[in-house]
Amino acid sequence: MRGTPTVTALLASFLSFSHTLASEQQPFEFGEMSAPQYTLPPLPYAYDALEPHISSQIMELHHSKHHQTYITNLNNLLRTQAEAVHASDITAQVSVQQGIKFNAGGHINHSLFWQNLAPAGSPEAKSGAAPELVKEIEKVWGDEKTFKEAFNAALLGIQGSGWGWLVKVETGKEQRLAIVTTKDQDPVVGKGEVPVLGVDMWEHAYYLQYLNGKAAYVQNIWNVVNWKTAEERFLGSRADAFKVLKASI
Ligand SMILES: [Fe+2]
């Protein structure tokens, strides 16, 4: 799990994070104190499409209730923030940053997650749909099986709620793959980081079906990983990976 940042670093990150989000939207209209509003992106498949690995009940609740709640909360907080900015009320602005980070993270993470899943047996759910990514995975981990074992170990090592990610990290002309975990709804939005594949490790993602069988969920998720999306994110830019957010405005 990533280390705990200082309060100052956290605040700076919140402010820059909410600025990044806002800059992707229409500008604030201070006269009316309006703020950008997000909407729930539709799933690219039916709620029962990931059966038997992820139940229809989980998918429907997860998408239409959990994800929607993050969006509703985010929209309300962005409105409050816009009003606070308009009123030059710095304390009110600071008071909403934690909530904005949490709920925006929830919106970002779930939007990415839905797209990196696909029905089992579909061409997208086979690693052959990601030839360049698999080549790089083999360079780093030796083979696909070892990579999956490392990824699963990271997922099962998460304490409490969080996410596991395969991330492309770009530093200058160099790029490398890394497995990282994030706490709660912290998104992967660091400089040069492109989230290639994410797995939701909150209990709401599996508990209704797998109960305490977290290891079985982690094992079965590989049957419904969308390798085509992973390949596109691996070959693409940060903006490409996050384009689903722009589309949902
Ligand atoms: Fe979730």
Compact overview of the structure:
The protein has 249 residues and is mainly alpha-helical. The protein has helices at residues 7-23, 56-86, 90-95, 97-115, 131-141, 144-156, 207-210, 214-220, 227-235, 238-241, 243-247; strands at residues 162-171, 174-183, 193-200. A 3-stranded antiparallel sheet has the order 2-1-3.
How is this fold's topology laid out?
Blueprint: H1 7-23, H2 56-86, H3 90-95, H4 97-115, H5 131-141, H6 144-156, E1 162-171, E2 174-183, E3 193-200, H7 207-210, H8 214-220, H9 227-235, H10 238-241, H11 243-247
Antiparallel strand pairs: 1-2, 1-3
Helix pairs in contact: 1-4, 2-4, 5-6, 5-9
Bound molecules: fe (ii) ion (FE2).
Keywords: Manganese, Metal-binding, Mitochondrion, Oxidoreductase, Signal, Transit peptide
Protein name: Superoxide dismutase
Signal peptide: 1-22
CATH class of the largest domain: Alpha Beta
Number of helices: 11
State the helical fraction: 40-55%
Bound molecules: fe (ii) ion
Q: Are there runs of 5+ residues with pLDDT below 50, and where?
A: 3-28
- The total of beta strands comes to 3
Q: What's the CATH superfamily of the largest domain, by name? A: Iron/manganese superoxide dismutase, C-terminal domain
User: By helix and strand content, what is the structural category?
Assistant: mainly alpha
CATH topology title of the largest domain: minor pseudopilin epsh fold
Shape: globular
User: What is the first-to-last residue Cα distance?
Assistant: 31 Å
One letter per element, helices H and strands E, the order comes to: HHHHHHEEEHHHHH
Mean pLDDT: 88
**Which radius of gyration do the C-alpha atoms yield?**
18 Å
User: What composes the largest sheet?
Assistant: 3 strands, antiparallel
Subunit structure: Homotetramer.
Keywords: Manganese, Metal-binding, Mitochondrion, Oxidoreductase, Signal, Transit peptide
Subcellular location: Mitochondrion matrix
GO molecular function: manganese ion binding; superoxide dismutase activity
